[in-house]
């Protein structure tokens, strides 16, 4: 089968398109004929060697995947050959930038039926990140106020949609390029972070501050004053500490996305009901993946890119 792998860590040039043996599912596993995988920043981090997730080399990137079950291993009863599936694969195992991938059956759920199967690969890890940030770590509930910093990114637009579904009032920062999309996602107030100071724009303290942007640490600490006593600051930027305020009982939490089959099933249902929109900005082929990694290193990627097979 055809796969993209890296045999050593380094720049995008270490990615190679190769012919490799088709994997066989073991007990509790299924083999998926891949429709698409999705590019995530962590793929670049693992390839570059600066994200501390242990992988066995050579490694196939692409831990978000969609496709069709092609074979099942011993003991698998919840999935069958022919089932269209989507999943968030264990990041330390080979991913979906290949024609076939083997995965634990528990990492996969039935794919959405309302969108193309290739586009479903854009859903798992980013939507789970948004949900876990808001609910599991932020404890956001109906009637509360949420401030999303960096809402114009992929996770941000999921976070806005999910927060509105929870019944929260959402204030979101965005650039002029993404402001319209953030407003369409449901934000009650969109602040242009390129021209406006958040301390001037936010006239009432929020219950949860969700940071999704690589902002200056000192500026991040200053934003904690916008959170009410007893509130929460949640961040996905694991490379810097998430600030809180012990004196005011403002909690701090850093999100590391976790597999959650039950929650992913719920997110798929929200997609099929029309309550959650999956955004795909580009579709590329396996052969174009190294060039995409190079674009990402240069900071030229916006939106969600899926790799079709």
Question: What's the arrangement of secondary structure elements?
Answer:
Elements: E1 2-6, E2 15-19, E3 29-38, H1 41-48, E4 64-72, E5 84-88, E6 100-104, E7 108-110, H2 117-120, H3 124-137, E8 145-149, H4 154-166, E9 169-174, H5 179-185, E10 189-192, H6 198-201, E11 206-211, H7 217-223, E12 227-235, E13 251-254, H8 261-273, E14 282-285, H9 289-297, E15 305-308
Parallel strand pairs: 8-9, 8-11, 9-10, 11-12, 12-13, 14-15
Antiparallel strand pairs: 1-2, 3-4, 3-6, 3-15, 4-5, 5-7
Helix pairs in contact: 3-4
The unreliable regions are: none
- Quote the distance from N terminus to C terminus: 11 Å
* Rg computed from alpha carbons, rounded to a whole number of angstroms: 20 Å
Strand tally is: 15
Classify the oligomer.
single chain
Strand residue percentage: 25-35%
Structural class: alpha/beta
Largest sheet: 7 strands, mixed
What is the global morphology?
globular
In helices, the fraction of residues equals: 25-40%
Instruction: Calculate the mean pLDDT score and round it.
Output: 96
Q: Provide a count of the helices.
A: 9
Name the helix and strand elements from N-terminus to C-terminus, one letter apiece: EEEHEEEEHHEHEHEHEHEEHEHE
């Amino acid at each position: 089968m055809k796969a993209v792998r890296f045999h050593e860590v380094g720049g995008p040039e270490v990615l190679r398109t190769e012919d490799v043996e088709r994997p066989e599912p073991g007990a509790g596993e299924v083999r998926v004929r891949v429709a698409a995988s999705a590019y995530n920043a962590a793929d670049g981090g693992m390839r570059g060697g600066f994200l501390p997730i242990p992988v066995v080399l050579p490694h196939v990137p692409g831990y978000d995947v969609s496709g069709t079950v092609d074979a099942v291993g011993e003991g698998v009863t919840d999935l069958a050959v022919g089932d269209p599936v989507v999943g968030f694969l264990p990041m330390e195992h080979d991913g979906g930038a290949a024609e076939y991938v083997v995965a634990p059956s528990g990492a996969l759920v039935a794919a959405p039926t309302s969108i193309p199967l290739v586009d479903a690969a854009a859903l798992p890890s980013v939507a789970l990140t948004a949900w876990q940030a808001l609910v599991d770590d932020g404890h956001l509930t109906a009637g509360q106020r949420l401030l999303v910093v960096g809402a114009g990114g992929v996770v941000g637009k999921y976070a806005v949609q999910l927060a509105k579904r929870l019944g929260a009032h959402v204030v979101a920062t965005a650039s002029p390029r993404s402001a319209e999309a953030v407003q369409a996602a449901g934000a009650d107030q969109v602040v242009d972070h390129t021209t406006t100071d958040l301390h001037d724009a936010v006239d009432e303290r929020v219950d949860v501050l969700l940071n999704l942007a690589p902002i200056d640490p000192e500026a991040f600490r200053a934003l904690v004053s916008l959170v009410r006593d007893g509130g929460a600051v949640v961040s996905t930027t694991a490379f810097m500490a998430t600030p809180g305020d012990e004196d005011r009982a403002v909690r701090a939490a850093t999100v590391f996305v976790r597999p959650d089959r039950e929650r992913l099933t719920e997110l798929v249902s929200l997609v099929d009901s029309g309550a959650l929109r999956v955004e795909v900005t580009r579709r590329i082929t396996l052969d174009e993946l190294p060039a995409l990694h190079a674009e990402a290193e240069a900071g030229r990627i916006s939106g969600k890119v899926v790799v079709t097979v």
